[in-house]
Write a structure and sequence with these properties.
It comes from Aedoeadaptatus acetigenes. Residues 208-271 form the tRNA-specific 2-thiouridylase MnmA-like central domain. The chain has helices spanning 12-23, 51-63, 74-90, 97-116, 160-164, 175-185, 206-214; strands at 3-7, 27-34, 67-72, 121-123, 128-133, 138-143, 166-167, 221-224, 230-234, 257-262, 267-271, 278-288, 296-302, 310-316, 322-330, 338-343, 346-357. By secondary structure, the chain is an alpha/beta fold. Helix 1 packs across helix 6 (175-185) and helix 3 runs antiparallel to helix 4 (97-116). The longest helix is centred in the first third of the chain and has 20 residues, at 97-116.
Amino acid sequence: MSRILVAMSGGVDSSVAAYLLKKAGHECIGVTMKLYENDTVAHTGHTCCSLDDIDDARMVAAKLGMDYFVYDFSERFEEEVIDKFVAYYEKGWTPNPCIDCNRYLKFEDLYTRAKELDCDYIATGHYARIQYDDTLKRYALLKGPDEKKDQSYVLYSLSQEQLAHTLFPLGELEKSEVRKIAEEAGLVNAKKHDSQDICFVPDGDYKGFLERRENKTYAEGDIVDEEGRVLGRHKGAVGYTIGQRKGLGVAAGHPVYVLDKDMEKNRVVVGNKEHLKKKELDAVDFQWLSYPETDRLKVTARTRYHGKETAATLIDKKDGNITLIFDEPHGAIAKGQAVVCYDGDKVVGGGTIVDSRG
């Protein structure tokens, strides 16, 4: 029997993770991270870590006979996640705050708290798997079997120590199975909707969140084609995403997509879908989970959460810098997003995209 700290968001996944561990006879402590003040988000009922979610997590913990605590990590979340989110958007990049939350909050701060509580492991409701390679004497992170729910993309930054002390009880399950287990166990959140979008921007209005938080209005500017011809006006370049087609409000006679954003000139550049495709990208802060014996290796890569995997060659530039050359041009690559590379189901590593070219 192990002593396990279970991260409980109030959703069905983390609740079933706790249930399965308790059923297996482990001593479990439930913990919810309070990440922000509840009145700072536009509540839609599809977020996580709200006061309602804390109530749900507490009720599940009580039903399972678990001690339960709420830890206030809001200051740390502000520094490591929200501040970076704002800075990236203001320079025209597209961050993924879930990666930073996992990296700095769940598997760093919460893991530290678990050690202070003499826990052997930390457990979450993520859909991913951890395996130990006896030959390499290393832990490997693998995809979950449910392709639509696989969360390995946002977990690539886990260290060997963290992997050694982390459990993913849902790793071999599909979402439908998790729902069924929750209903059979009588968990209060068995039919609860999954959280959508970013937890602190649950309405999906990133520009609105930025304006409220920074107390300013982002200026309108020109929407231009690749030759610089003005096609229309945008309502603040921070509100547009590479690859976006809807909501542009321009009449070009054919579908156009956001190809680039020039934040200095406050312009959004649009063009044909084919021009989104790039042959190469550069990434920094690349975290290796599987160390290759060569500086070049064949992988598949995702450049967006749940994005399509594309075959590519990974070139290690050392010091955390890599170049990725795709076998076929790959579309809608956004600076600030993560690129995560795979060898089959195994995560090779991941980093932050800083450039792409075609």
